Amino acid sequence: MADPDVKRLPIFQVDAFTDKPFAGNPAAVCLLEDVDLTDEHQQKIAAEMNLSETAYLRKLNSDDDFSSSSKFGLRWFTPTNEVALCGHATLASAATLFYMMKNPSPQLTFQTLSGDLFARREGDFISLDLPENKAQPLDREPYSQLLKALVGMTPIRDFQYCRSVGGDLLVRLTDDATRQTLESLRPDTVAMLAAHTQDIIRGVIVTVKGSLENGCVDKQGVMYDFISRYFAPWNGIAEDPVTGSAHTVLASYWAKELGKTEFYARQCSARGGDLKVRLREDGRVDVAGKATVVLQGMIRI
User: Which of 20, 80, 250, 270 might form a disulfide with 236, Cβ 3.0–4.6 angstroms?
Assistant: First the structure.
């Protein structure tokens, strides 16, 4: 006999920015249906799922439907706290609606802490319409211990900070750095946490300019314009596999550096993922990727 006090919510696990299971960045997506979860419950589920992000989709009106409506509320929780913007969990949310709920809408709108975000079908890709986030140069001296824990003695060319995305440091390695240089970094996340305890950092982006000579190419030999890794121990994430929101900072930065607005990029985590990124004239960034659903079920609360 079913327990009337037990609520069951549809939940999915989606690998974002990849077309293969067990790659890209996994996110959980929970459909709130007609259940109004407290913040405490949403945080507990995110801790239980223990992924970098758990997304919560909610209906905005009582007659809305996940299979046909085109506008929803969206929140994101890490295992430890709520965040203001998460690209890969937004992509995962759109994939859940498009692929699992068979939502026919050409574009979805999500009401979030970062304003309205949009997800569009573009062939096999889902393109996210996100706000541009501009970084500014920052004095690196106060962060010397943090940078040592992050990259050791690897030379740094540029150091910037973006407040609008929630507080991301951007660290660009010198142009003689290779893809192997970036992938071989082994940050000491405990030391990173000890070096900086203030609430102004969401995470750290480490990036390298792409070239054919430094190994920044995909399996078909196509060059990446830039590559990156992302570390966020302050949010309980030692390394994030693929970070859509970080590419709103990277697009803004590399547009100035490379003199172009369309980019092919890779985030070089162990799982890894490819992204198509475009900086628009209206101050928005299109971040496109593929996604695959690897698990679906019901969560009991």
Answer: 80
Contact 84, 113 (CB under 8 A): yes
Per DSSP, helices labelled H in the chain are 39-49, 87-95, 144-151, 179-183, 189-195, 246-258
- Which candidate in 40, 48, 53, 122 is catalytic? 53
For residue 4, the model assigns a pLDDT of: 65
- Provide the pLDDT for residue 119: 98
Which stretches of the chain drop beneath a pLDDT of 70? Answer: 1-4
pLDDT of residue 1: 45
Structure tokens at 296: 């679906």
Contact between 49 and 84 (Cβ < 8 Å): no
pLDDT at 3: 67
Closest CA to 247 of 233, 234, 266, 260: 266
Q: Which residues contact 48 (CB under 8 A, 6 or more apart)?
A: 299
